[in-house]
Amino acid sequence: MRRSIARAWDPARWRAVFFAVWSGQAASLFGSQLVQFALVWWLTQTTGSATVLAGATLVALLPQILVAPVAGALADRWNRRWVMVFADGGIALATLGLALLFASGVAQVWHVYLALLVRSTGGAFHWPAMQSSTAMMVPERHLARIGGLNQSLYGLCSIAAPPLGAILLSALPMYGILAIDVATALFAILPLLGFEIPVLRRDPAEAAKSSVLADLRTGFRFVAAWRPLLVIIVAAAVINLFANPAVSLLPLLVTSHFGGGALQLAQLESVFGVGMVVGGVLLGVWGGFKRRMVTAMLALLLQGIGFAAVGLLPAAGLGAATVAMALIGFTNPICNGALIAAIQARVPHGMQGRVLSLLSSGAAAASPLGLLAAGPLADRFGVPIWYVIAGAVMVAVSLILSAVPGVLRFETDRGSEGAAT
């Protein structure tokens, strides 16, 4: 495809522009985490229904599965800066509308569901646009470091947002908390309006002949033709199939196996969050091994060992489980950050939106399937067995991928990928 980066972008200023945009996105992410906590708590307090909470999770997950592939194709067709502006703006408008409903005292469960649906749809557009823009703004040698910073940010939000959200719920009405998210969305939008970022321009004649559906098919063919990339995406879905349900079963693991309560659950969740921050910071400073996939596979192997250890420990092993959870949290951002950086460094800029959205869509689709299987299995054989299975799968995937030709050499291999571009 004939594409070029717009002249308005100045590579010498990449740090100033990128971190201005990144800081705004970080503020918006924290606001979103506050809102997520507040809305889940409101649904819990208002209905007391597990079905309602499960429905909220499903509503938030569906766009990540169904909309993400199309969103990725559009992110490769459109100006990614404006994709992010409109995604952030749409999320802010949905939140503002919900805030007005709460302020009027007429908010209902279906209003919250609708807002969650819009917010998740906006996120499905925003993530591939931001990640593919990052690959164009940041020099390749720094991509893993930026991935580490992103993972640290997620860890910080997971630690700070719930307690701060609880404090705000006692001090502010719901519409006040929603207004905070609207304000943080403005922090995300303003830098995007004030700075130029690299733009991929398509040949007008080529763009007129293609369609979104054709671009989506091209994305699928691109992944299918590049065997190592296809293996990586399938492996990510398999890992999520087992790992995400295990994490969701943590409260039951604490109460039914370790005989603990809320304090012990908070202990395990806190060390996981702290581990994420430390691991992300380490990757941000270190950058990983020269081959990013080696970094990702080693971290995945250690993460699998941590999961299996949690499941194999006896009921009196809560202290050791705390260490294992810290290991899981520590290796998670190193694995994810290095993997995303490898894809950003290797996949052509004009294809990254589609590839990254297929990666996220596959991972999202695997989670509910795993949850359907995890519940009955955990009820019959106990929660620890699911942690053992998840850990074994992660160790096996790490070893198998390391043996697949082209995976560890993903960033330097010149295989069938060339035929798909």
Helix-residue proportion:
over 70%
Spatially, the strands of the biggest sheet line up as 1-2
Number of domains: 2
Overall mean pLDDT stands at 88
- State the name of the first-level CATH class of the largest domain: Mainly Alpha
Note the overall shape.
Answer: globular
Order of secondary-structure elements: EHHHHHHHEHHHHHHHHHH
Primary descriptors:
421 residues; mainly alpha; Growth Hormone, Chain: A; 2 domains
Describe the structure.
The chain has 421 residues and is mainly α. It has two domains: 188 residues, MFS general substrate transporter like domains (Growth Hormone, Chain: A), CATH 1.20.1250; 200 residues, MFS general substrate transporter like domains (Growth Hormone, Chain: A, Up-down Bundle), CATH 1.20.1250. It contains 17 helices and two strands. The chain has a two-stranded antiparallel sheet. Helix 1 packs antiparallel against helix 5, helix 4 packs antiparallel against helix 5 and helix 12 runs parallel beside helix 14. The radius of gyration is 21 Å and the shape is globular. The N terminus is likely disordered.
